Amino acid sequence: xxxxxxxxxxxxxxxxxxxxxxxxxxxxxxxxxxxxxxxxxxxxxxxxxxxxxxxxxxxxxxxxxxxxxxxxxxxxxxxxxxxxxxxxxxxxxxxxxxxxxxxxxxxxxxxxxxxxxxxxxxxxxxxxxxxxxxxxxxxxxxxxxxxxxxxxxxxxxxxxxxxxxxxxxxxxxxxxxxx
Length: 179
Fold this sequence. Notes:
The protein is mostly helical and 179 residues long. 70% of the residues lie in helices and 0% in strands. The longest helix is centred in the first third of the chain and has 27 residues, at 19-45. The N and C termini lie far apart (59 Å).
């Protein structure tokens, strides 16, 4: 039985081999940023004929949040907009993805009693999908098509991603408890 051959015969072989993964990470970053960023713009500024902060605060109250609703509305919306802007260019990716993952899991927990699909209640399947995309980007990193490419977290994304995962979970627990 032969062992796994990890030798590289040509200098660019590894780069070509993983180019598809880099394109996939770029696409994941962009779709996550488009969805979460648009939601943030709708919530905070009322863009795209959205309801704005006041109505978003009412939505949060409907999910059981009861303290400092205005502050929570701002935190949520600005995290979505700022995190999305960072993901578009691949800057501070672990922090941006952690913020969006934290929001995603908070929404999933808040909507969990409404059923998985929206047709029978509030549903959380879409938010769960976005949260998993954020988690994938958090753990895999931004890829080569990003400003983070040569940063320590761009070179070794898993360790920074694991730290971001802990940060996101702690933040989600604190948000749930505090608000």
